[in-house]
Write a structure and sequence with these properties.
With 292 residues, the protein is an alpha/beta fold. 50% of the residues lie in helices and 14% in strands. It has eleven helices and six strands. The protein is globular and about 75 Å long. InterPro entries: RpnA. This is Transposase.
C-alpha cells in the first residue's frame, strides 16, 4: 500500500478537508465536531479559500487553515498544529476576531453578524488541567454560568489525549463519529487504526470511504507530494527551533536559580568556598555577585 500523507501536517489536512469536491468530507467532520442534532445537520458548506496548491508553492507563508461558511452564515476556521508554540489561546482569539469582524460591511447592522467558530486540532497536550480530548469554550457569566452569546465558540481537540483513550478502549470510532475523524488524522502512523477505519468505511460510512479514497489519491499526486514534503520539512525545522529555544530558556532559568541561591548564601554570611561547593560557581563569579 502507498505511504499516505500525514494528515496532521496542515498542508495534507487542507488537501483532504479544505478543497473543492471534498465539501461532504468537511461537512461530516463538522457535524461530528459540533455535535449537531439530526435536524440541524450540516448539508452544505462553502469553502472560503479552496485554492492553495499553486499559491503555497510561491509563498511558503500561506495560511493553511480551512475556512468555511455554513448556509446560515456561520463562519468556521479549522487549524491543525503539530508544534506547541505556547500561544494557541491568543492565536485562536486573533483568528476568531478577524473572521468575526470581517463580516461587517458598510451600512450593516450588528444584529446581522453571524456565529464564528474556531476549531484547533493540536498534536500535543495543551490544556493540562482538563482530561477531555475535546474542549469547547464560550462566553459565560462567571457566577451564574449564563451564556452571554453563542457568537463565539472555540474548540480544542488534543490528539495525544484521544490516543490514550483509544489505547485504553475508552472511545470507540464505531460509536463516536468525532473519534472516527480524529483517529483518521493519526492513521498514517498506526496500522490498527487504519484497519478499523477502513472496516467502518466499507460497512457503514460512505463519506469516510470517500475520505480514505481521496487521501489515497492525493498521497500519489506528484505536485501535492512536492509541496507536502516542503511543508513537512518546514514544520520539522520549526520543531527543532522550538526545542533549541526551550533548551536555552531552561539553561537560563537554571543559571538564574543558581545565582539566586548564591545571593541568598552571601546574605547569610556563608564563605565563598562553601558557596562554590554547593552551587558550582567559581570564586570569581561569587565575588562578582558580592559586589553587585
Amino acid at each position: 500500500m502507498t505511504k499516505r500523507l500525514d494528515l496532521r501536517v496542515d498542508f495534507a489536512f487542507k488537501s483532504l478537508f479544505g478543497t473543492h469536491g471534498n465539501e461532504s468530507i468537511l461537512a461530516a467532520f463538522l457535524n461530528a465536531a459540533l455535535r449537531l442534532p439530526e435536524e440541524k445537520k450540516i448539508t452544505t458548506v462553502h469553502l472560503l479559500d479552496p485554492h492553495f496548491n499553486k499559491e503555497y508553492q510561491e509563498d511558503k507563508r500561506s495560511i493553511l487553515d480551512v475556512h468555511a461558511q455554513l448556509e446560515d452564515g456561520t463562519r468556521i476556521n479549522i487549524e491543525i498544529q503539530l508544534n506547541n508554540k505556547h500561544d494557541m489561546e491568543k492565536r485562536t482569539l486573533y483568528y476568531w476576531s478577524k473572521m468575526y469582524s470581517s463580516q461587517m460591511k458598510e451600512g450593516m447592522d450588528y444584529g446581522e453578524l453571524c456565529q464564528t467558530i474556531t476549531i484547533n486540532i493540536v498534536n500535543f497536550r495543551y490544556l493540562s488541567h482538563i482530561n477531555h480530548y475535546h474542549s469547547v469554550f464560550q462566553l459565560y457569566e462567571r457566577e451564574e454560568k449564563l451564556l452571554l452569546t453563542d457568537m463565539l465558540e472555540i474548540h480544542f481537540m488534543e490528539l495525544p489525549k484521544l490516543l490514550i483513550k483509544w489505547r485504553r478502549k475508552e472511545v470507540d470510532p464505531r460509536e463516536d463519529q468525532l473519534v472516527r475523524w480524529l483517529l483518521l488524522l493519526e492513521a498514517s502512523e498506526d496500522e490498527e487504526i487504519t484497519q478499523v477505519l477502513e472496516e467502518i468505511a466499507m460497512q457503514e460510512d460512505q463519506v469516510l470511504k470517500k475520505a480514505i479514497d481521496e487521501w489515497e489519491r492525493v498521497s500519489q499526486d506528484p505536485e501535492v507530494l512536492l509541496a507536502y514534503e516542503a511543508r513537512r520539512k518546514a514544520l520539522l525545522d520549526e520543531k527543532s527551533a522550538l526545542k533549541r529555544a526551550e533548551s536555552r530558556g531552561e539553561e537560563k532559568g537554571r543559571k538564574e536559580t543558581i545565582k539566586n541561591m548564591a545571593l541568598g548564601m552571601i546574605q547569610k554570611g556563608i564563605d565563598n568556598e562553601t558557596i562554590s561547593d554547593l552551587t558550582g560557581l567559581t570564586k570569581e563569579e561569587i565575588n562578582n555577585l558580592r559586589h553587585q
